[in-house]
User: Which sequence fits this backbone?
C-alpha cells in the first residue's frame, strides 16, 4: 500500500533531480558544448566563450541529487529516525527521545510501496517496534510486543497474562520519572529468559565458592574447568532464541538501555535531526 508521506516525497525528489541530472549528462551538456565551441572567439589574444550556460534547475539538481539519493537509501533500507511523541512507552522511551529504527530486522522492503522483497526475520516477544497504525497508515506507533500470532493475551488487575499464565515481574520501586504520579515500576520477563541467566550466574558463583551441592564441592576444579562447566550448563539451558531475546533486551530496563536515544541518540542524533527537519520543512511547504 502506497502512503503519501515523507518517504514518497523524498523518492519523488530523488527521481526528478536524478532524471534532470541524467538528461543533462547525456543530452543537454553535449548540446551546450557544441554551442560553446561554435561561439568561441579570440579577442585580443583571449579566448571568449559565449552561450551554453548551464540552466539553474540543472545546477540545483546536480547538487541535490546525490544528497537525496543517499538519504533515500539510508532511510529506506538501513535506518529511519523517529522522535517519541508521547509517554506511552515510559520508562523505556521518554517523550522527545530520538531513536534510529533498524529497517531490515524483519525483512527488506521497497520504500514507498512498503512491499517486502527479502525475508530476514520475524518479530519476537519483547521487541520494541515501530509500525503503521492499520486504521490510519499515516500514523506511526511505537510499542512493545507482548504476544505473537496464536497467543492469548489478557490484562487483569494490572497483571499481564500470556496464554493463561501471568508474566513474571519484579518490583523496582515507585516510579519517579515524568508523565506519571503515584505509580509503581516493574520489570517483566516475557519469556523466562532472565531466570535462566540468573541460574547461569548462580552456577558460576557456586563453582567459585565450593558449594556442596555442585560440581566443585571439593574445590579441585581449575578455572578453565569451571569455565567449561558453565559453558556446557549454559548451552543446555539457553536456546538460540533465548540468547537473541537477551541480546535485544529482555526487560523494560534493557529496552531503555538498548532502545532509547540516551545511547542511540548520541550516535545518530545529528542524522535524525537533519531528516526530521527535512520532514518538517516538507510538511510546511505542503
Assistant:
Amino acid at each position: 500500500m502506497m502512503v503519501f508521506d515523507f518517504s514518497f516525497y523524498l523518492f519523488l525528489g530523488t527521481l526528478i533531480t536524478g532524471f534532470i541530472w541524467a538528461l543533462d549528462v547525456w543530452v543537454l551538456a553535449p548540446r551546450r558544448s557544441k554551442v560553446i565551441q561554435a561561439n568561441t572567439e579570440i579577442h585580443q589574444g583571449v579566448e571568449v566563450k559565449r552561450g551554453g550556460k548551464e540552466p539553474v534547475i540543472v545546477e540545483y539538481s546536480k547538487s541535490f541529487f546525490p544528497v537525496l539519493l543517499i538519504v533515500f537509501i539510508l532511510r529506506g533500507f538501513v535506518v529511519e529516525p523517529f522522535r517519541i511523541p508521547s509517554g506511552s512507552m515510559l520508562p523505556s522511551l521518554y517523550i522527545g527521545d530520538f531513536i534510529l529504527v533498524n529497517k531490515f530486522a524483519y525483512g527488506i522492503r521497497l520504500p514507498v510501496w512498503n512491499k517486502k522483497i527479502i525475508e530476514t526475520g520475524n518479530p519476537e516477544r519483547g521487541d520494541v517496534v515501530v509500525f503503521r497504525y492499520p486504521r490510519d497508515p499515516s500514523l506511526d506507533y511505537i510499542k512493545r510486543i507482548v504476544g505473537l500470532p496464536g497467543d492469548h493475551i489478557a490484562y487483569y488487575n494490572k497483571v499481564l497474562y500470556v496464554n493463561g499464565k501471568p508474566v513474571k515481574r519484579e518490583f523496582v520501586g515507585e516510579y519517579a520519572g515524568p508523565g506519571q504520579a503515584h505509580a509503581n515500576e516493574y520489570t517483566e520477563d516475557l519469556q523466562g529468559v532472565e531466570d535462566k541467566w540468573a541460574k547461569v550466574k548462580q552456577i558460576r558463583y557456586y563453582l567459585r565458592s565450593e558449594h556442596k551441592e555442585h560440581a566443585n564441592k571439593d574445590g579441585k576444579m581449575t578455572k578453565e574447568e569451571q569455565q567449561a562447566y558453565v559453558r556446557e550448563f549454559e548451552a543446555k539451558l539457553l536456546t538460540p532464541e533465548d540468547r537473541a531475546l537477551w541480546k535485544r533486551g529482555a526487560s523494560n530496563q534493557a529496552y531503555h538501555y538498548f532502545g532509547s536515544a540516551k545511547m542511540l541518540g548520541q550516535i545518530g542524533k545529528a542524522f535524525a535531526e537533519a531528516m526530521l527537519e527535512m520532514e518538517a520543512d516538507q510538511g510546511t511547504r505542503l
Observations:
- The chain has seven helices and 13 strands.
- The CA atoms of residues 58 and 151 lie 56 Å apart.
- The first strand starts at residue 41 and ends at 43.
- The helical segments are 6-38, 56-78, 193-208, 223-237, 240-248, 252-259, 264-285.
